[in-house]
Amino acid sequence: MKGGGIIKRLKFNYDLTAAYSEEINNHSFSVLCIPQDTQRQKIRELDISTDGGAVYQITNDSFLNKKLYGKINAPHKSFGVHISGIADAGIDIFEEYTDYPFGAILYKAQTELTRPGESLTRYHNSFSFKESDGVYDRVLKIMRDIPNVFEYSSGSTRIHETAEGAFTLGKGVCQDYAHIMLSLLRMEHIPARYVVGMMLGEGSSHAWVEALCKGYWYGFDPTNNKLVNDEYIRVSCGRDSSDCPVIKGSFYGGGVQKQSEFVSVEEINEKD
Amino acid sequence: MGIITVDKSDHLFWLGRYTERVHTTLKYYLKTADMMIDSDPNYYAVLCEKIGISDIYGSRENFKKKYPFDETDSNSIISNLNRAYDNAIVMRDYIGTETMAYIQLAIDDIKNAEKSNSPIADLMLVIDHILAFWGCVNDIIDDEQIRNIIKLGKGIERLDLYLSLDIPSYYIKKEYKRMKNFLTKSKLRYDESILYTLDNMLSEDEFNYGNIKNLLRNLILE
Amino acid sequence: MDSLIKNSETINRLLARYGVKFGIYKNGEFKEQLFPFDPIPRIIKKNEFSYLEKGLRQRVDALNCFLSDIYGKKQIVRDGIIPEEFIFSAKGFLAPCDGVSPPKNIYSHISGIDLVQSKNDSWYILEDNLRVPSGASYPMIARELQRRSAPDVFTDNSVADNRNYAELLSEVMDNVNTGGINVILSPGRYNAAFFEHSYLAEKTGAVLTTGKDIVCENDNLYYIDYNGKKQRVGAVYRRISDEYLDPMTFYEESVIGIPHIFEAYKKGNTAIINAPGNGVADDKGIYYFVPKMIKYYLGEDAVLMNAPTYLPYYEEDMKYVLSNFDNLVIKDVAEAGGYGVVFGSSLTADKKSEFLEMLKQQPRRFIAQEIIDFYDLDILDENNVKVPRKADLRAFVLTGKTTKVWASGLTRFSRNPDSFIVNSSQGGGFKDTWVLSQ
Q1: Is the CB of C98 less than 8 angstroms away from the CB of A111?
Q2: Which of A45, A173, B163, C355 is the least buried, fewest Cβ under 10 Å from its Cβ?
Q3: How is domain C308-370 classified at the CATH fold level?
Q4: Inter-chain Cβ pairs, chain B and chain C, closer than 8 A
Q5: Is residue A3 assigned to a domain?
Q6: Could C252 and A245 be called an inter-chain contact, meaning their C-beta atoms sit closer than 8 Å?
């Protein structure tokens, strides 16, 4: 299972815009949408641009995500961040576990969003794993089973819906799939983290799960019931979606705010 | 201290204005109450018109009871004193607990006067404590600029009220000179062309009170 | 002492004059209330204070070690002294603080440690407050006023002067200041403790701000005057909670914080007092482990005892709690300010079985404690008659170059004879606390 996967060369574009019905000023922002090198992917020709005369800096947050942040003082009605580049994806199918920053301990704890209630606890009990079942097998079994009890539907869950809330409803989006899977994995005491990224095709960003199996982080996409492979570009990770907000803003004025994101990832065949 | 932000200078300026508004309107309230005894029972309506507040009182008795004490009336003396308090309480570190205490005492005075058998006589204590407050501003506050911003607010408010109350021009000229002194020392931004016009107008023996009032209201820049 | 009682009206009048108030919201409206003051002081003898001092310094030093460990190597968890569930699923653990060391590695600069004295004279720790403990200003100003209303009392008794709190606080701020001015960050005048924020600013010479005048540029904090002139900020004594501190790192909707202040802090360009993330150490669940921390980090036995506490999380403790429920007080670890406290004996049979069910479902959520037989303090009731009431003591422990205990404290009492709840938000009053210097 270990070793090199199939490598795809992916050209990606990530456009994030926020529009305000009235002018805003003293606008502080922070954005998490910069992919970086991992064991699984190498990023080249990274290009970052912002509009609205933003002065920005880049730092690592505590999950080692690349955070772009800054301020625009002058009045403006829209703000955008555009990231593009080329990713070699699928170089490896896992990422080796490192003790920094948290070790795995943090990812074993349930959070406000993943803490199970009655229905998730009942669902978890239905798996009846045996002591001898391997960690990877458990994770796989859980991912394979979720589509039997949960269906994809956009617009039915709130932005910060809990795993229990979405599960009770029976339908939701990729974020809800990921939270449900995280909740189940953590009930199994398997360290697991929430991942935001891009997937081959056009649309919005995607979310999936990484689970720590015998010293390696493996990616699992419960929404598509797929193992994370060379069609995926990883952007950020955290304990749940609230650690990975794509954009945050604080400002005076503004009226109604509308945010939109457009992500496109296509395969290219250029040679080195 | 040395650092005064926009918000803070605003609070100091309005602290000056509201304490002065309480001081002068209270003095005229006492004068009005006196006139209503035997010379003009409805004089309160004249006062209302002069200082530009709507006459919601309807009767002499009602005016005497409500104008100083009614906290639900936004034009009342207590409402203005509460606004002075609101501006003082956020400036404790600049003006000092001792100075602030006199605003608190003035509020207590008004509340006690309302319950007293001789409210009008007891209201004079409010004036005493406002004067003590200004004494403290002079005596306790080391920072010259802080003092001058408060005094500028006080000076501008006094001019505004004096012009409304048709006080003789001699006093207007005197107060204008005092105010100008604080204006430059306060280091606040002001409209120089307005100041120039005011200087010219006030050098005459006769001048239009209404015009001067309007100019004064636009003198200080935001 | 009698003159203090005789002059109690004078002192209350003076407290009103100086605006010694706290704010509360009643039916959605903000009101300021005088904090009821009782003239009879709590008196702590010199040797007793030395004992408290030793225990409090030890406790706060260990808690600082713990915070540095948790946001660093997490050795105490790896060594199995504290189960990981108590740390990483606690609300107070803030992931953004992981791996960030505050200036001089001090996390809790100002610690408010609540103690009670039992009938047999032993002191017990009730809880630790390491986030934004408030209350020091009240005894400070009450002492100032009592010295005016009854000077002879202080000539006749050797009472340590407690008005040095502002100096201690300035030392603490200066010690971690990274270059620039000290500011006190307040949520504004409609905060319950605004009197204290403004009073401490006046007494320490720090600048009081609501954050609107502060900007973060290139990871540095600046205070901006009316001309647009900037002055660097080297230490922020913030009186707002972690969640509201930086909308770009914590709660996005916060309008009272300073955007990007956390980045300035992370890079060591400003000190935040107390450090963000301290909530992980003053959690009621973690309280149980503090004596173990003292042993683990300092290699010493705890001088001051915890109230005997059980963690239903441990099976053995759960058994004990279930069979002794009526003799215990149960506390919800997430609540504060006297809320979420249940006396086992006070519940009806129905309520009790309902509660026990919840306890079994969520054992991690509660702690159970033996009820301490409080040593009551006398207060004067409405008719100026002395009556005994429950009281606690908040000791203020300040960590600068060294850890010092302020020779005074906030003694809060319950005005209701049947109540153990002393919080001002629930109608309690306060007393001065005298530490005798001879």
Answers
A1: no
A2: A45
A3: Dna Ligase; domain 1 (3.30.1490)
A4: 65
A5: no
A6: yes
